[in-house]
Amino acid sequence: MLELLFLLLPVAMGYGWFMGRNSVKQNDHSAKQDLSIKYSTGLNYLLSNQQDKAIEFLLETLKVEDDTVEAHFAMANLFRKRGELDRALKVHEHLVRQKHLPSKAKQQAAFELGKDFLSAGLYDRAESMFHKLLKSKDFNLKSLSYLLQIYQSTKDWQHGLQLNKAIAKSNDKKLLHTLANFYCELATIALEKDEFIEVLELLENALKYDPNSCRANWLMAKIYENHQQFNEACQCYKDIYTQDKDFFPDVIEQMQGCYHQLDAEDEFYQFIKKVYDETGGSSALIKYLSFVENKHGLKKAQDYMLSALKRRPTIKGFKHFIKMQMNEQSSPQENENLDMIKELISSYLSVKQRYSCCNCGFSSSTHYWSCPSCHDWEQLKPVRGLEGE
Question: What is the pTM of this model?
Answer without folding.
Answer: 0.77
